[in-house]
Design goal:
Elements (H helix, E strand, L loop, with lengths): L1 H5 L4 H12 L4 H23 L9 H18 L4 H8 L2 H16 L16 H26 L1
Length: 149
């Protein structure tokens, strides 16, 4: 597909074909999953050591904003929107692993849930935010490359 893209005069078609050749498969889902699992673990560690007894009211809003930023950065690295959304589903398993790790190390002093007041089903919201952010960033990059080429 990359050879086809280099031998045609239609720049927009060539750019889309080149990007399709680069993103074939699920290569970016593992990278996205690692990013969002680390975000989940980091959030649990911050909650344990920084806000020990009183987590801020806007913690979930902050997590959603960080998800948008991470999705945009993944989109800039040419991770597809679906891959970024699928990787964002690793946020809550990462947060639960952080909780289990703290329980193993600290015993009764460790938290029992990753985020108080947030259901596990709310992780789907993060997937949508990450997918939209990655897709929008890729679209902007593609349009900018077409205009400058």
């Amino acid at each position: 597909m990359q050879n086809e893209a280099s031998s045609v005069n239609d720049r927009e078609w060539a750019m889309e074909t080149t990007q399709a050749a680069r993103r074939f498969g699920w290569r970016g889902a593992g990278e996205a999953a690692a990013v969002f699992a680390a975000l989940g673990v980091g959030m649990v560690l911050l909650g344990q050591f920084l806000w020990r007894y009183d987590a801020p009211d806007a913690l979930w809003v902050g997590v959603m904003l960080l998800t948008g930023v991470a999705g945009s950065l993944l989109g800039a690295r040419l991770v597809a929107a679906l891959e970024a959304g699928a990787g964002a589903l690793a946020f809550l398993p990462g947060a639960w692993l952080g909780v289990l790790g703290l329980q193993a190390l600290l015993g009764d002093a460790a938290p029992f849930t990753p985020i108080v007041g947030v259901a596990d089903a709310d992780g789907a919201v993060l997937a949508v935010i990450a997918a939209c952010a990655a897709g929008t960033t890729q679209r902007v990059i593609t349009r900018r490359a077409l205009l400058t080429a």
